[in-house]
Write a structure and sequence with these properties.
mainly alpha; TPR-like_helical_dom_sf; RMD1-3_a_helical_rpt; cytoplasm
Length: about 260
């Protein structure tokens, strides 16, 4: 009789524990689903603000989620920080601070998801920006890493015209490098990064093929690269397209 009562009590406790466990699972699952919906809502709102050119509002929205583990949120925050730094109203000290902040967010996005093409892309962009504050040695030293991340981004998403354009910019920059910087690079590195205007041109055309008329700066650099190659007829064609491009952003206006 004692044994029977003990077993009944044990069964009741086991049943109670089981029900509590199942309730916990249900609540946890609901919380996870709710959290994922929240992330989706923030991403949707962020993309709307980005498309509307609301740089400051976008940054304020995303910086609230700087401790997130979501790579999609983090690379968007890196981009927003960088875009804020590009505004003419941003002071020199704020530009510097935002550049390092953006790199930190991009690095975190990459740590959270190494297979996210945009995390590679924005890490490379932000690493390049930081080089502007750290001198020629660091900038050249980072160049190979930057190109590797751009190439990895293209492997993960071959249709992303912006990343292809950015490799073109990388090539153009090293093709245009002044002689004294080349000399410094040769002194500091056994095999310094090099490129040609022909290689840059190939990437700019590849970007245009991937997404025609997608970016005012790609049109501008097609024109500039043709000028470097002494092809004024083609340069005029692309520079005219850049000039007529509808200016939606601060960068478009500069172009």
């Amino acid at each position: 009789q004692v044994l029977r009562k003990s077993l009944q009590r044990g069964f009741a406790l086991s049943t109670g524990s089981f029900l509590l466990y199942e309730a916990h699972k249900l609540i946890s699952g609901f919380a996870e689903v709710h959290a994922s919906f929240k992330v989706e809502e923030v991403l949707e709102q962020a993309d709307y603000l980005y498309g509307s050119g609301e740089t400051e509002k976008l940054y304020r929205l995303l910086v609230q989620h700087k401790d997130s583990d979501d790579a999609e949120l983090l690379w968007r925050l890196a981009r927003a920080s960088r875009d804020l730094a590009q505004l003419s109203s941003t002071s020199a000290e704020e530009k510097r601070q935002l550049a390092y902040e953006a790199l930190d967010y991009a690095k975190k996005a990459l740590e959270k998801n190494e297979s996210n093409f945009a995390a590679h892309k924005w890490y490379a962009i932000c690493l390049s920006d930081v080089g502007d504050f750290e001198g020629i040695k660091t900038k050249i030293g980072n160049a190979i890493v930057i190109k590797e991340h751009f190439q990895r981004a293209i492997e993960l998403n071959p249709k992303d015209a912006t990343t292809i354009h950015l490799i073109g910019i990388w090539c153009y920059s090293f093709a245009e490098m002044p002689w004294y910087q080349r000399k410094i690079a040769a002194t500091l590195f056994a095999t310094p990064p090099t490129s040609t205007f022909q290689e840059a041109l190939r990437y700019f055309h590849m970007a245009e093929e991937a997404d025609p008329n997608f970016y005012s700066k790609n049109l501008l650099f097609l024109g500039k690269t043709y000028l470097k190659l002494n092809n004024k007829k083609m340069a005029l064609l692309w520079l005219s397209k850049a000039k007529e491009y509808p200016a939606h952003t601060e960068e478009d206006k500069q172009v």
